[in-house]
Amino acid sequence: MDFFTNQNIIFYLLAYLVGSIPFGLILAKNFAGVDIKTQGSKSIGATNVLRVVKQTNPKLAKKLGAATVVLDALKGTIVLLIGLSLNLSYETLWAMAVLSVLGHCYSIYLGLEGGKGVATGLGVYIVLIPIPTLIGAIVWIVCAKVLKISSLSSLLGLIAVVISSVFINDGLNIGSNVPMYLIAFIILYKHIPNIVRLIKGEEKKVI
């Protein structure tokens, strides 16, 4: 079978290419006229959109930050939902999930640079392990309200997803938790600078 007519290969490419779309960068440039790749943490995620745009337009910053979270999550969710509708195997779906997160974190459109993968991870997890993801989302929201530190809240939410999934969805319908752990590892790896700042007490709060 030809490489580019193989359904799984097509969906792997689609997952990565859609995952690579830098919505935060696009929204900030088009609606606020700022390049978040050159300001703040230089990340393309919602937190940096919020921080950078807030300097000139606080009201717009909240809207763009929220829109970035939603769109970054949806770019993982939509491709998986299409795959589900076509009865792709769970092995294929989990591979697509990993590629979506890799796309966001290492975008082909940005020279393999990107964001931290939290929202896109949430987007793929909610399709494949919904109950643990809802638990993690609640932990994320509560911690964000109380701690006001985006990175720490995200990591605690991620840990909650992984731990609850081990008890609720152990095996992920494929007999292995490896894809879930791989996504979590990618997100943790991208957060290493944040973790270092947290240990030093230098991580900034989102106010």
TrEMBL record:
Transmembrane helix is among the record's keywords: yes
Enzyme class: transferase
InterPro entries cross-referenced by the UniProt entry: G3P_acylTferase_PlsY
SMART domains, sorted: G3P_acyltransf
Membrane topology designation: Multi-pass membrane protein
Pathway: Lipid metabolism; phospholipid metabolism
Keyword Transmembrane in annotation: yes
Alphabetized UniProt keyword annotations: Cell membrane, Lipid biosynthesis, Lipid metabolism, Membrane, Phospholipid biosynthesis, Phospholipid metabolism, Transferase, Transmembrane, Transmembrane helix
Membrane spanning residue stretches: 9-28, 64-86, 93-112, 118-142, 149-168, 180-199
Pfam families according to UniProt: G3P_acyltransf
Compartments where located: Cell membrane
Superkingdom to which the source organism belongs: Bacteria
EC number: 2.3.1.275
Swiss-Prot/TrEMBL catalytic activity: an acyl phosphate + sn-glycerol 3-phosphate = a 1-acyl-sn-glycero-3-phosphate + phosphate
Record HAMAP family: PlsY (MF_01043)
Similarity-based family: Belongs to the PlsY family.
Quaternary structure and partners: Probably interacts with PlsX.
PANTHER family in the cross-refs: GLYCEROL-3-PHOSPHATE ACYLTRANSFERASE-RELATED (PTHR30309:SF0), INNER MEMBRANE PROTEIN YGIH (PTHR30309)
Described purpose of this protein according to its UniProt entry: Catalyzes the transfer of an acyl group from acyl-phosphate (acyl-PO(4)) to glycerol-3-phosphate (G3P) to form lysophosphatidic acid (LPA). This enzyme utilizes acyl-phosphate as fatty acyl donor, but not acyl-CoA or acyl-ACP.
Protein name per the record: Glycerol-3-phosphate acyltransferase
Organism classification: Bacteria, Pseudomonadati, Campylobacterota, Epsilonproteobacteria, Campylobacterales
